[in-house]
Known about the structure:
179 residues; mainly beta
Amino acid sequence: SFTNVKLDDAFVFPGKLILAQVIEIKTSESLTIEEIVLKNTATASDPKTKIRGADLEYIEIRRGSETGQVLAKKETNLEGLENLEKEGVTIEVSDNNFFSEGTHRLYILVKLKADENLIGKKLALGDTEVIGASVFYPTTAPAATFTVVGPRVEFEDLGFTEAVVYRGQRFLAARILVD
Length: 179
């Protein structure tokens, strides 16, 4: 069986590598994974606010951990990810794809392009299929939604009183917090 593992919804910045989905595999016999279908199912009032395949640098599938063996990597500029938000993207797996009986995990990482036009767009990998079988999304572990945000700037009044400043004197004129 293939089960989605709960990840928290998060705000992410353009250019970030996101752990977008973790799939737990429980099998009573050996298994070879040949393809995985991924789809952006983020709910959006405007379809233009969903992350498209062209908004990504690549999608990478690893086994065991976020830094485990790479099963597959699909890059936008090579194979294209244009159907991510529609019918989904099929990623063929040919390396490290044999799983013995037991429990295993697949880690799906998504690298966003460093583009300010992504701000406000959303990504949620739902309706994932592994070798033709749908991944089960328990009510306690729905697809995590990642929303792209830009940096925030806050200005804080430090409450200094007015004072005379002389040429060559150093002083704190403002403090800007960028988060």
